[in-house]
Fold this protein.
Amino acid sequence: MGDTLEFNEIYQEVKGSWNDGRLRFSKQNVVYKSSKTGKVDNIPAAELSLAQWRRVCLGHGIKLSTSTGHIYKYDGFRDTDFEKISEFFKANYSVELTEKDMCVKGWNWGTAKFSGPLLSFDVNDNTAFEIPLANVSQCATGKNEVTLEFHQNDDTEVSLMEVRFYVPPSQADERQDPVEAFAQNVLSKADVIQATGDAVCIFKELQCLTPRGRYDIRIYPTFLHLHGKTFDYKIPYTTVLRLFLLPHKDQRQMFFVISLDPPIKQGQTRYHFLILLFSKEETINLSLNMSEDDVERRFEGKLSKNMSGSLYEMVSRVMKALVNRKITVPGNFQGHSGAQCITCSYKASSGLLYPLERGFIYVHKPPVHLRFEEISCVNFARGTTTTRSFDFEIETKQGNQYTFSSIEREEYGKLFDFVNAKKLNIKNRGFKEGMKGNIDEYSDSDEDQHDAYLERMKAEGKIREEGNDSDESDSGSDESFNPGEEDDDIAEEYDSKASASDSSDEAGSGSEEDSPKKKKVKKPKVVKEKKERKPRKEKKQKDTGGPKRPMTAYMLWLNSSRERIKSENPGISVTEISKKAGEMWRQLGKDEKEEWETKAGEARRQYDIALKEYKESGGESSISKKEAKKSGGKKEEKKRKSSGGDRERERGGGGGNESFKSKEFIDTSEESSSDSDHKSKSKKTTKKKKKESDEEEEAASSPASSEEESD
């Protein structure tokens, strides 16, 4: 038989729910640690008074009773565990592990027995069920019945709200009412909080973030009373799981966090954490409502009757002494700004994440506490909104995921080192380890990742821009279109250099009036008069005969170091050489860079001298003359073409030549895709030709009439 016995996946009954954990029997004590909350129950071996082996719903279980009146129930054992546990108890605890049968008849009448902190209901001397009186929150009496109400556990799917016992009248003892006697037995052990007596001390108007408001905190020997304008909370010290004292990032305020299990309730809302906010500058003189002897006997030097100091120190000191729990403070972690926390966002709210020695705590909305033991892995993810931040994801062994987003990328190196030192499983270690401690590499690593969505958006934007450029004239005509304008106005704004697509649109506008039966008719578009374009600036020709520009300090260093980089990294590509060189240049010290900057400055001075001599010798002026000659030739050619076109138009108008193309000719010369358009064009051409022939006849007849008048 060894010194210890350990069992995994053992369940503890807590207010109707089964919480799994680990149970260890040693010579000195019995220790149970909950996997869910991390709470540890330590039962000294000397206090064990009773041990029972029972058949329960999850196999077999053990019920342990102590001399102090506490009851502990653990289930999940196998049949074969009975022998070794029984021998261990006899050898180390001097307690016999007895087998106890439970009644499964389902009868609802029997005998109620009060045994210490338990109310057992027996049928034929076998226990049917047991009620821990510590779970009773209210006890109400009637004529012949007693009603018990219970503290609720939010983790259970089904909760027991109340139990009613019918108590028949007793014929033997008429001096005492059996109902009242039953109620007194319940109330003597029940966890019914009653504010009897004076408070040990009172803290007035403390700022509370969760639940929000200003509360007076009254400290009683067994519970904490939060008294606000709207709500009152009575918190037993037995429900306090942990205490945290956390400095704010501004170094002027302090958070005092009380972790509660079970939580306090306000309607359907549950508060698992009580968060108080203090100013470091606020002080208090505190006097306990106890005699000095009582203070010394009760707190053993942890507190004194009269104390003074910062308000947050007094509250934390009193709570530590009454709850008998250690206060957790941040460890050695220090962020980029020097604070012991990191600014981030969780869900919709911004808050502070504190890396502790044994876990993480996020303050404050909603508060989250994650122990390293329950963390499965962590992940560093790229920020969803910007590359200036990243996300820190934590996944628990229960499958829950917590994402703390919008963390500044400067915090990455510190957080990575902390997580690595705590030996947590980093999900994407291979991808992110290369950028540890280097801010520039962080941004480079993000840019190197191929983002298919981003590439597709860029391609679509490029196509859209090209489409906008080609349809620029159409968009202008849509904006300036006025349905009330006449054809004469359109003719005035007509530009003879319009594109074929615009002229075809105008041809469609002419067919709109001539063919009213057509259902779908393209709306006419008015082409704006094009503004005169400024002459394009001639591109300056490169002077090949001038001195060569000097290289920068980086390029001088790169030319001297390129072969060395190739030899140190065989098989490296040209782009990788540039990237590697950039990293090496950034890591160079100030003195090393100064050497190359001096060489670059000397090269610049030599270039300035050579350029000055080159200009004095007339090297640059020859280039400017060539440019002037070239631009002058282009202008002359353009002028010659335009004047030739004007003369052509003049000859066409005077001699009846058809080379001059009027607006009507352009409209009718274009081929249409529909028959109706073709007919409308031919009609319009016929009308115009008839009009022109009439004008010619009139012009021919007018000189004859004038000669007759003169005669």
About this structure: The longest helix spans residues 619-654.
